[in-house]
Design brief:
Length: 482
């Protein structure tokens, strides 16, 4: 008997009906991911299952390391098939980890393979999947079409030329691929050498010399303008916690002069400079009507030895325990007082912050905008069944679930689009259970509109993203037709 059935995660007849009628067919709006724009522009084809599925996937690497697998089979130089077999051996030990669900859902949706992955099935799955990978349907553009990805927002540094986005804009594959402005490097003042190297690179991209803070901000504004011209409408910041120290322009100027001269900053100076810059970025986003994303709370690169040998983002990260509330509220309130508060999506990785973030979203309303401050989908370590249910419950109990902008993959893998299906099934299951328990009305118009909004419409309306004509041909309600 197959493990992933048509009724996977759908525990009631009502849940199954809701999912199939309102969620399953909705196109995907993936407004935050880390996919490569060059891979899309060049319509990359993957040579084997390891290349598309394991390379760069620190989620799988963590599981393999936990099972005692040598590093050469994770991020190292082992042969692709050896890496895949090492992963296959680990999979049966990942029961109840979301990787077990994702693995088998991805095998089915990409390759039609229903077998459980383990060491005994690895060889057959390897050959079947690799044969299919040679076809057009599983090229990068083929995958976007296969999963009906309506909008995809990649993530770029301000110095990126966006040359691949220029090429993608000419592709007629039915997917709008848009850049996201992520200026995290502008706040990384811990190492003056690296900061100044990046600042010099910023100056080159903006075609100007940067010696003063005013130059630094002007260069960033020029790049912000450039991204806007290239259809960017979203910014993003990955921070351990929000910065909201008092720091006037005079003090910020002195701090910038100090680091630009090659001198290290104190922790207090770094925090003050970051606070000044975050206000500046908030003002830029508000001026252009962009949406700002804040990903808060991850304790990154905790293994110093691994950081030195493998670099950042290799899978040695944890949930952080910073106090988020006071600084985050101060930051948002400061922008609001200055009439410079953009629409904002807040993502937390520590579940203890769920209700903090969910309640904060209701504090800064604006007439005509539904849920101006959004509580974003479950992120990173919370992107699993229980974490998704916690997030949906928190936003339901403290805000308006009907306005929620929905799921994102936050992934570097083209295999990850079934995570939208995973989320949709969990959402419909929660609603179906409560309908059958008498906690929600059996009003299909209200419930169906809510599901369709979360899966598609709300993100398009909130983010002001382009609407593809396919929606109207399929008779699906869209943000602009509601």
């Amino acid at each position: 008997m197959a493990f992933i059935t048509d009724d996977f995660l759908l525990q009631t007849a009502t849940a199954r009906h809701l999912y199939r009628k309102y969620a399953a067919s909705a196109p995907i709006v993936d407004f935050h991911c880390h996919l490569s724009a060059s891979d899309i522009a060049e319509n990359r084809r993957f040579r084997n299952l390891t290349e598309i599925w394991l390379d760069g996937d620190h989620y799988k690497w963590r599981a393999m390391r936990a099972d005692g697998v040598a590093e050469k089979y994770c991020s190292g130089d082992a042969e692709p098939y050896e890496k895949f077999v090492a992963w296959a051996r680990t999979v049966p030990r990942a029961l109840r980890n979301p990787l077990y669900h994702w693995t088998h859902l991805e095998l089915i949706r990409h390759f039609g393979i229903h077998d459980l992955l383990d060491e005994s099935t690895a060889g057959e799955i390897w050959h079947r999947a690799n044969e299919l990978l040679s076809g057009e349907e599983l090229s990068t553009q083929g995958i976007l079409k296969r999963f009906d990805v309506l909008v995809l927002c990649t993530t770029e540094d301000p110095t990126d030329s966006l040359q691949y986005h220029d090429r993608i804009s000419g592709c007629h594959n039915g997917t709008h691929v848009l850049p996201t402005f992520r200026p995290d490097a502008a706040l990384r003042t811990g190492d003056p050498v690296l900061f100044n190297q990046w600042t010099d690179k910023l100056g080159i991209s903006a075609d100007m010399e940067i010696s003063r803070l005013a130059d630094f901000r002007e260069a960033l504004q020029k790049r912000h303008d450039y991204f806007h011209e290239h259809r960017c409408r979203i910014s993003d910041h990955g921070l351990d916690h929000c910065y909201a120290e008092e720091c006037g322009d005079r003090e910020a100027t002195g701090i910038f002069r100090k680091i630009r001269s090659g001198k290290g900053l104190t922790a207090e100076e770094s925090a003050k400079f970051a606070s000044s810059m975050m206000l500046f970025f908030g003002q830029l986003d508000a001026q252009k009507g962009w949406v700002k994303q804040l990903h808060l709370g991850a304790q990154r690169n905790t293994n110093t030895r691994a950081l030195k040998t493998m670099g950042a983002d290799a899978g040695f990260d944890s949930i952080g325990d910073w106090r988020q509330g006071a600084a985050l509220i101060s930051y948002i309130d400061r922008l609001d007082r200055e009439n410079s508060l953009p629409k904002m999506i807040l993502f937390n990785v520590n579940p203890s912050d769920n209700y903090l973030f969910a309640t904060l979203t209701g504090n800064y309303p604006q007439e005509g905008i539904r849920s101006k401050i959004q509580y974003g989908s479950s992120w990173w370590f919370l992107d699993q069944k229980e974490g998704i249910e916690w997030q949906v419950n928190a936003i339901s109990y403290c805000g308006l679930l009907s306005n929620f902008v929905g799921m994102v993959t936050d992934s570097r893998s083209f295999m990850s689009f079934p995570r939208h299906e995973y989320f949709r099934r969990i959402l419909c299951n929660l609603l179906g259970i409560e309908i059958e328990a008498g906690l929600l009305p059996e009003n299909e118009e209200i419930i169906g509109r809510t599901i369709r909004g979360i899966c598609l419409d709300n993100a398009q309306q909130y983010l002001d993203l382009p609407v593809n004509a396919r929606d109207r041909r399929q008779g699906l309600p869209t943000a602009k037709s509601r």
